[in-house]
Amino acid sequence: QSALTQPASVSGSPGQSITISCTGTSSDVGGYNYVSWYQQHPGKAPKLMIYEVSNRPSGVPDRFSGSKSGNTASLTISGLQAEDEADYYCSSYTSSSTQVFGGGTKLTVL
Amino acid sequence: QVQLQESGPGLVKPSETLSLTCTVSGGSISSYYWSWIRQPPGKGLEWIGYIYYSGSTNYNPSLKSRVTISVDTSKNQFSLKLSSVTAADTAVYYCARFANYYDSSGYSPYWYFDLWGRGTLVTVSS
């Protein structure tokens, strides 16, 4: 299985909005509403931010939102804050009942 | 609250077998799917495989020939064995839990990770 495709890096200023894309195939992202997003700060374990494309776990700010169109899912962070600076990974269920991650995106808050 | 803790040798020699255990504390291992995920230094996450508490498994096709995941419900633990390791297997290894739900069919997974261990670094070197 091939890793999902994410941009290596994105950046934005405090208060702005950014979007991170995650592109797969009809066998993963496009075929199921089982896309999730994880935030990872340096030296820490990943943290669930979005599940099933657009749902936020309890405790995750509503500045974080997710969507999907075809084979591409997206994570949008609005009202950027300094603490949002981290690596972000998408993940999807696949037609083989496996999981696949994206390559990760480094978010820099300018 | 439920916590996961990885344990095992931090250094493994090339061609040998990497063995790690994940201990589930504060809750039961039953009714959930459990996974191993790894992250080479400075790189992205790679899913290794999962096991259901009953013992059924599924693995990343790229690692399938070298991976075995097992469960010991009496100890509330599940384990990873990765054989014939090379330097490319050097990584932080995480254990994680798939969220689940219950309906008339029993327990089923939600396909996302709602709980992670802190991770443990395993270095492959002679």
Protein architecture, described:
The complex is a heterodimer of chains A (110) and B (126). The radius of gyration of chain A is 13 Å and the shape is globular. Chain A has no helices and 9 strands. The model of chain A has no long low-confidence stretch (mean pLDDT 97). Chain A starts with 8 loop residues before the first strand and ends with a strand. Chain A is mainly β and 110 residues long. Chain B is mostly beta strands. Chain B contains no helices and 11 strands. Chain B has strands at residues 3-7, 11-12, 18-25, 33-39, 46-52, 57-59, 67-72, 77-82, 91-103, 106-116, 120-124. In chain B, the strands form 2 sheets. In chain B, strands 2, 4, 5, 6, 9, 10 and 11 form a 7-stranded mixed β-sheet that branches. In chain B, strands 1-3-8-7 form a 4-stranded antiparallel β-sheet, with no helix packed on it. The chains are: A mainly beta (110), B mainly beta (126).
Question: Main attributes?
Answer:
heterodimer; A: 110 residues; mainly beta; six-stranded mixed β-sheet; three-stranded antiparallel β-sheet; 9 strands; 0% helix; globular; B: 126 residues; seven-stranded mixed β-sheet; four-stranded antiparallel β-sheet
Question: Would you spell out the secondary-structure blueprint of this structure?
Answer:
The complex is a heterodimer of chains A (110) and B (126).
Chain A: E1 9-12, E2 18-23, E3 35-40, E4 47-50, E5 64-69, E6 72-77, E7 86-93, E8 99-101, E9 105-109
Parallel strand pairs in A: 1-9
Antiparallel strand pairs in A: 2-6, 3-4, 3-7, 5-6, 7-8, 7-9
Chain B: E1 3-7, E2 11-12, E3 18-25, E4 33-39, E5 46-52, E6 57-59, E7 67-72, E8 77-82, E9 91-103, E10 106-116, E11 120-124
